[in-house]
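Why do we bother with holo predictions? Because pocket geometry can differ from the apo form. Keep that in mind while you read this record for zinc ion.
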Amino acid sequence: MPSWIASALAAWLGAVLGSFANVLIHRLPEDESILWPPSRCPRCRASISWRDNIPLLSWLLLRGRCRRCRGAISPLYPAVELVVALLGWGLWRRWQAHPYWAGASLLAACDLVAVAAIDWKHFIIPDELSLGLLVLGLCVAPLNPIFAQPSWWKPFLFSVRGAAIGFALCYGAAAVGSALFGKEAMGGGDVKLLAAIGAWSGGLGAFDCLLVGSLLGSIYGLSLLAAGRLRRSDPIPFGPFLVAAALLNLFLILPLGFPLVPIAS
Ligand SMILES: [Zn+2]
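The structure, written out:
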């Protein structure tokens, strides 16, 4: 297959998974089933037919309006589909030598995008997404190029160890943070998320993500404070920044163990 067709298919698969991420984003916080009922218009509750539910294209063709009630459909829906489509394209370009891993990491990316959107809006990280990502990371450990080992059980060990380190690092950082600032900077959801990230990227990867996530979150918080758009008492969700770091880590853009043990990858 020509390489551009494979890349386009990966982007399309990403867009479809992005459509599923939208279902997760809108239903998990409401405790609704993610399988039933099928997609509905958020305004008139009409079922959306398959031809109006094609990722990216339907929203463009309908110019962002429901076919029945003409109510506006948020551009966040196609935006999420576009983000996961780009991740599908990029992860395929990065990991086409390990196609199963490319597929597994796209599932992780879909989960992470849903985590970021839900935490941004509701300040929660559903266990279905954090613990689900943890379990999936353990299951696919033998496919993980950074855990590549001759013995079959070692990748599982690295994954479990990564999860334990991620959990301990975030738990420790949360305890230090609340002792220093007298308020909760990270919650249990963040701890479970970093454990999941550790299962995918090992203990060093979890360390990188905590460091880079905290840095990104601090830059965001301080710039809002400086612009007078945030008060010191206002909460900032930490999950989206951990997600940004974890997505970089899926591409191995952060050298593992950064800044302690930079290794080439
Ligand atoms: Zn409608």
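Residues 41, 43-44, 46, 66, 68-69, 71 surround zinc ion (CB under 6 Å).
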